[in-house]
Amino acid sequence: MTEPERRLLTPEEYRQAQDSPEFTELRRRFRRFAVPMTVAFLAWYLLYVLLSTYAVDLMNTHVFGDVNLGILLGLGQFVTTFAITQAYVAYSARNTDPIADEMRSRLEAHEYRSEGQR
Amino acid sequence: MTIGTPAVNISIFGVFVLITLFVTFRASRNNASAADYYAAGRNISGTQNGLAISGDYLSAASFLGIAGAIAVYGYDGFLYSIGFLVAWLVALLLVAELLRNTARFTMADVLAFRMRQGPVRTAAALSTLAVSLFYLLAQMAGAGGLVTLLLGISGAGAQALVVVVVGALMIFYVLVGGMRGTTYVQMIKATLLIAGALVMTVWVLGKYGFNLSSLLGGAADTAAQQATPRDVLSPMGQYGASGTSKLDFVSLGLALVLGTAGLPHVLMRFYTVPTAKDARKSVVWAIWLIGFFYLFSLVIGYGAGALVGADRILAAPGAVNSAAPLLAFELGGTVLLGIIAGVAFATILAVVAGLTITASASFAHDIYNSVIKKGAASGTQEVRVARITSCVIGAVAIGLGILALQAGLNIAFLVALAFAVAASANLPTILYTLFWKRFTTRGALWSIYGGLISCLVLIVFSPVVSGAPVNPVTGVSPSLIQGDGFSWFPLNNPGLVSIPLAFFLGWLGTVLDRGGADADKYAELEVRSLTGIGAEKAVQH
Fold this sequence. Notes:
Chain A has helices spanning 11-19, 21-54, 56-59, 69-95, 97-108; strands at 62-64, 67-68. Chain A is mainly alpha-helical. By secondary structure, chain B is an all-alpha fold. In chain B, 74% of the residues lie in helices and 0% in strands. Classes of the chains: A mainly alpha, B mainly alpha.
C-alpha cells in the first residue's frame, strides 16, 4: 500500500544544481516572463476595477449602439487573459521547458553529485 | 410560486444522478492507495483535468449568482466573472506547475515544505477547512433556493429532506469514488453546464438578431420599466450608493483576483495529473472553458434582465439566484427549465463533493498523519480517516444547508467571502514559499493566522452579519442577525484590509525570526519546482 520509495537527491546535489549556470538561466527565463506579466495583468485589472468605480461617466460613454466603454473594456479583460495564456504556453515551450527537461534527466542521473560524495 | 413541472425537473436530475453513480462505481475499482484516493492515481490527462477544474470552479455561484447579479444590477455583476477569470492567470503563471512539482496531496504539503512541519501544517489545514466551509455554505444556500423554486417543495421539513438527500449523495460519491469518481462527476457536470449555457446564449442572441447592442438595449429598456428603475449598462448600479459601497466594490475585486490561486480544492486538482506540463495544459483548458462560460453568463444575465425583468426575478423564491432558471422557462418552457434545473443541481452536487474530498484529505493527511501520528500512519489508515472525515463534513454541510435555507444571501457574494479568506490566509504564504528565499516558519504562521483571523473577525463585525439597514421593499435587513447590530467594519468584503495585512505579516514575521530560513530546503524546493525532479509519479495499474 505504501508508494514506492522515490530515489531522493542529497542536499548537496540540490545546492549544486541550484548554483549551476543552467539553473540560474532557467530561473531568469521563468521569472522574466512571469513577473512582468503578473504585474501587467494585475495593473490592467485593477485599472478596470477603479475606472468602473470612480470614472462612471467615462465608462458610460457609448461607443456603438448600446455598447459602452465599460462593457468593451470588460470584454477586453477576456481578450487579454486568453492572449496571455497562449503567450505563456508558447514562451515556456520555447524558453524554459528545454532547460527544465535537460536538467531533470541530468539530476536523475546524479550528474550534480560532487566528487567528494559517493 | 413554482415554475415548470416538478416531475420533469426531478426526472432529469434523477438521470444525472444515475449516470454519475454508475461512473463512480466503475471508478471505485482502482481506489487502493492514498494516491488513488486523493489524487486519482495522478492519471487524469491535462485535457480531462481542465474540464474537471471547470466543473469544480463553475459552482452554483458562477451559474446562478452571476447571471442573477447581471440580470438585476447589470454591469456590477459583470465584475464577478471578470475577477473569477483573470484570477486564473495567477494560478497559471505562478502556482500550478510549481505546486504540482513539489507537493503530494494537499496545499499544506507545499506550505510546510521548507518549514517546521507541525505548526505550519496545522495552520494550513485550518485555513483549508475554513475556506471549504464557506464555500460549502454558499453551495448549500444555492441548493435551498433552487429546491423551493424548481421542485415545488415548500415547508421547512420537506426542504430539509432535499438537503439531506443532496448531502447523502455527495458523501456517497466521495466515499466510493474518491478523487477519481469525483473527477468524472465534475467532467460530466462541466460538459452539461457549458452545453446548457451555450444553448441559452445562442437562443437569447437569436432573439436579438445576434446583435450584442440590441440585447443590451433590450435589457436597458426592461430595466427602466421596473419598480426600481436601474441603468443596467452603467457601472455602480449596485455599488454606487456611497463612498463606502464603492470601496466595497474595490475590495471585492481584489479578493476575486487573488483568491483563486489560494483555493485548496482548486490546488488539489493539480495533483491529479501526471506531470507539471499536464498541470499547465489543464489550466489552459480551464481558462478557455471558464472564459467562454462567463461570456455566456453575460448574455444569459442581460437576457434574463431583458426577457424576465428584475421585478419577477426578485419576487421569485431564491430571488436573485433564480434569474437563469426563470430565463430558461421563458425561452424553452418546461423541458429547458428541467434541463437547466438538473444541471444546476448537478453543479451543486459536484462542487460540494470536490470541497468535501479536499477538506477530508487535508484533515487526514495534514492533521491526523503528519501532526498527530508524526507521519507514521500508513496509506490505508490515512484513507480510512479521510473517509470518516468526509462523513463528518457531509453531516456539517447538511446542517449548514438546512440553516442556509433561511438566510437567503446571494451565493456569488458568499463565495466571494470564501475567496477573501483564501486570498488572505493562503496566497501570501504560497507565493512567499515559492519565491522568497528568506521566508521562515514564523513568517508563514503570522501570515496564515493573521490573514485567516483578520478575515473572519472583519466578516463577523461587518454588515454581512449584523447592522445592515433594513431594506424598505422586503422590510428585513440583509444581515444574518436582525435588529440592533454590533458591526463596526463598514465593508462587506474584508479583502482590501486582510490581504495586504497578510502579506505584511508574512514579511514582518520573517524579518523578526532570528532562526532564519532553511537554505537546503529552499534549494530543494526551488530545483524541484522548476525542473520537476522528484515530482510524484502517476500510479501504474
